[in-house]
């Protein structure tokens, strides 16, 4: 992603829109992915928690966002090659946070966010780590 905050926000806007319009989906495993976890599975873990961070107002560094975007882009390419547009779209739908009941006036969202915060912090720290950098570089190389 671009270093310009406006470009980053513009790039994240479609993801936020998709996150706000889809139905409920549980987040994957709570811990950062292990080294032998396949690309698409890692991308699902990272993407789910990055979307949760955005929804819950949790700060995530630009570095972590950029790395997550690179990993997710590689996973989307992989899904597209493996199963076409339907597989790619199913992958994106699986990353969506749950749909919250507007009648609950945000209480269900607040409770969900409270449960996600420790995992969001762990995933963000992993993305900011050297291991996260190495995996993002591998994902980008896989796209070439």
Write up this protein:
- The structure is a single chain.
- This protein is mostly helical.
- The chain has one domain (about 40-144).
- It is built from 5 helices and no strands.
- The protein has helices spanning about 5-20, 40-55, 60-95, 105-130, 130-144.
- Helix 2 packs across helix 3, helix 2 (about 40-55) crosses helix 4 (about 105-130) and helix 3 crosses helix 4 (about 105-130).
- The longest helix is centred in the middle third of the chain and has 33 residues, at about 60-95.
- Residues about 10-30 have low confidence and may be disordered.
Number of domains: 1
Unreliable segments of 5+ consecutive residues: 12-30
How do the helices and strands follow one another from N- to C-terminus?
A: HHHHH
Main sheet specs: none
Work out the oligomeric state of the chains in this entry: single chain
Instruction: Give the integer mean of the pLDDT values.
Output: 79
Number of helices: 5
Percentage of residues assigned to helices? over 70%
Distance between the termini: 17 Å
Number of strands: 0
Q: What structural category do the secondary elements indicate?
A: mainly alpha
Rg, nearest Å: 15 Å
Question: What is the molecular shape?
Answer: flat
Strand content: under 5%
């Amino acid at each position: 992603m671009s270093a310009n905050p406006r470009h980053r926000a513009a790039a994240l806007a479609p993801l936020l829109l998709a996150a706000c319009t889809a139905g409920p989906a549980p987040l994957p495993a709570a811990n950062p992915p292990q080294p032998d976890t396949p690309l698409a599975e890692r991308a699902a873990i990272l993407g789910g928690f990055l979307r949760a961070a955005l929804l819950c107002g949790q700060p995530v560094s630009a570095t972590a966002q950029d790395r997550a975007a690179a990993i997710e882009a590689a996973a989307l390419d992989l899904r597209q090659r493996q199963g076409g547009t339907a597989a790619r779209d199913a992958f994106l739908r699986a990353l969506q946070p749950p749909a919250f009941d507007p009648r609950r006036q945000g209480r269900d969202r607040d409770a969900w966010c409270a449960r996600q915060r420790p995992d969001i912090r762990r995933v963000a720290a992993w993305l900011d780590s050297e291991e996260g950098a190495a995996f993002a570089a591998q994902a980008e190389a896989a796209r070439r």
